[in-house]
Amino acid sequence: MDFELSPELQALRARVRRFTEEELFPHELTVEADGPLPDAVAARLRRRAVEEGFWPMNVPKALGGLGSSVLEQVIAQEEAGRATNDMWGYVGGPYNALLACNPEQKKRYLDPAIRNEVPAGAAYAITEPGGGSDTSNLRTRAVKSPGGWVIDGEKWFVTSYGRAPVTICHAMTGPEEATLFLVDVGHPGMRVSRNPHFMTRTEDDHPEVVFERCEVPDAQVLGEVGKADAVTKEWFREERLHIAARCLGAAQRLIEEAKAWVSERESFGKKLHEHQAIGFMLADCATELYAARLMTYKTAWEEDSGRFDGKELHAKASMCKLYASEMANRVADRVVQMFGGRGYCKDYAAERHFRHVRVDRIWEGTSEIMRTIILNGVLKRDLRRLVY
Ligand SMILES: Cc1cc2nc3c(=O)[nH]c(=O)nc-3n(C[C@H](O)[C@H](O)[C@H](O)COP(=O)(O)OP(=O)(O)OC[C@H]3O[C@@H](n4cnc5c(N)ncnc54)[C@H](O)[C@@H]3O)c2cc1C
Q1: Domain boundaries, given as residue ranges, for the chain
Q2: Which residue has the least CA distance to atom 35 on ligand 1?
Q3: d(CA 133, ligand 1 centre) in Å
């Protein structure tokens, strides 16, 4: 058993770390204050990510992407996740749902995202006011019309809406089946009803979007009619592992900054770490990060190995997201405490990560839903394959 990362993976890690520190860190406070970066700055970052080989990692070579392994993607997401304010979005690739594009759709939607010409490849609208975790409560409907479909409903928290040229709308097309539709930004019948403020400031908004007799032609169906779940499941599995990876990066930065602080700051004639109450917090942070990193890397390796089936990997990605996101929140809470008043100040990554990692316990499936998926896996699958 050899857990050492290959020289290539170590080199990738070093390159993404440099990019994150040199190109992303300097913009954190700008995004915190003003939201989206100026177009020219954002376009330059996107270009640099392509030049450096950090985009599009999740797109197969046959479709014009880098075809990176899942472990390579995890390592890149981990390093980018050190940045606050969702600046990690400059590393990786578009939502993998766009891989379901047919050749005509690929030219319009996937190819510009592969070339990284657009601020975001697509928005993905699933959640509704009446249904988030419980997708059986989703009410947005698409009804067949001659040559197309008419969509009616309301979607909430539509990340990247407006910045992305297209929204992927998940709509019911039968009592038990849903279909994905590609709806161009500005298309008649789709509008923002409200743009709420959230706990963090990023380049993206998460508006509420209404579909009112929104007519789209058959050509805008993404994947197969009635098969939304197949595409969405793949998206969840990738996103959940990437969230876990980014949480590792956030925790790593927090621990590095806390270590420097408690080694330098003195109180009552001692370095802070010499007060056991503070030193032990750092010890707990390091231990939990180590555990989260091992499980996330191993799951990525298992994805690449091809030796595990989709259902096993689905449960494992859920374990990684659950544990790593809860870990990052505990680490952020302790590190804010270690920094004292400074930990409450936005100038410090501790304060910003404290708010930013909070959503990782909610989006792409809450911690409670992750536990439901894991429990299902424990009950139905071979336990030895799940936890060894
Ligand atoms: C910043 C942000 C960006 C987002 N971006 C997107 C996006 O781009 N596209 C999109 O479609 N959605 C997006 N979401 C929505 C997100 O995925 C949902 O908020 C999430 O899935 C939870 O759904 P909900 O908010 O309806 O909460 P609910 O489902 O109402 O859950 C409320 C609480 O009840 C718990 N709960 C629910 N069911 C159970 C159960 N069976 N057992 C135990 N506990 C349960 C939940 O865990 C949670 O704690 C985003 C959310 C946020 C905050």
Answers
A1: 7-93, 123-222, 228-387
A2: 368
A3: 5
CA of 233 to the centre of ligand 1 (A): 16
Cα three-residue angle 355-358-362, rounded to 5 degrees: 150
pLDDT tens, position by position, 91-106: 999 999 999 999 999 9
Topology adopted by domain 228-387 = Butyryl-CoA Dehydrogenase, subunit A; domain 3 (1.20.140)
Query: Which architecture does CATH list for 7-93?
Result: Orthogonal Bundle (1.10)
123-222 fold: Butyryl-CoA Dehydrogenase, subunit A; domain 2 (2.40.110)
Rounded to 10 deg, the angle between the 228-264 and 276-305 helix axes is 150
Whole-model pTM: value is 0.98
In which region does residue 109 sit, left (phi positive, over 0), alpha (psi from -120 to 50) or beta (all else)? alpha
Q: How far is the CA of 131 from the centre of ligand 1 (A)?
A: 8
Question: How confident is the model over 127-160, as pLDDT tens digits?
Answer: 999 999 999 999 999 999 999 999 999 999 999 9
The pLDDT > 70 percentage for the chain reads 100
